[in-house]
Amino acid sequence: MNKSAQLHIAILESSKIICEGIQAILYQSDMDCRIYRLETLDDLIELLESNSVDILIANPLQFVNREKEIKKIRKSYPAMAVAGIDFGMMHKPSTLTDITFTLYDTTEHIVHLLLKLDKQSQSHPSEKEGEENLTKREIEVLTGLVNGMLNKEIADALNISIHTVVRHRKNIAMKTGIRSQSGLTIYAISKKIISIEDIEI
Questions:
Q1: Interval 7-31 mean pLDDT
Q2: What is the C-alpha separation between 187 and 177, in angstroms, rounded?
Q3: Are the C-beta atoms of 99 and 117 separated by less than 8 Å?
Q4: 0.90 cut: is pTM over it?
Q5: How far apart are CA 143 and CA 2, in angstroms?
Q6: pLDDT at 66 (0 to 100)
Q7: CA–CA gap between residue 36 and residue 31 (Å, rounded)
Q8: Straight-line distance from the first to the last Cα atom of the chain, in angstroms, rounded to the nearest whole number
Q9: Which single residue of 8, 42, 138, 146 has CA 20 to 30 Å from 29?
């Protein structure tokens, strides 16, 4: 994002106190931002229909039992980065967020994380060529996946461990925002990583 562009940040949190605290942190920082306050996931869906959002700061409890909707939103708006507020109640980090911060983090740390997140979202494949975003090895793994190869088969073909294949798969999913094989196939063809003729049926 260039310096003249304003950062659009949505805060999805039903607690007014927490929402106002985060808003105060953002306004007191050097970030030039416009903030939208949302109480429900439906508010977010409504907002996205008419406004672009660069960063969504959300209470992960808002995502409980609505994973399908979140994944659909993330697929429809791939340039939107998601920061989760960690209240210490989630046993494991949510796969639906890009980063998390706690309410006990310093103001500087939270602002730093959000700025870093914005930089990462700028190089998203929806806005830049995906093959520049994926490493050579990730493209090789992606090609294997598209051809229906199992993790072990990809590992053997590339002479790497299954663990490394799994790590590359996670990176591919994170960078592209796509997890299904059919979605990755369409992605690979659209980015000219592979041609339709190359796919082994």
A1: 91
A2: 10
A3: yes
A4: no
A5: 34
A6: 87
A7: 15
A8: 41
A9: 42
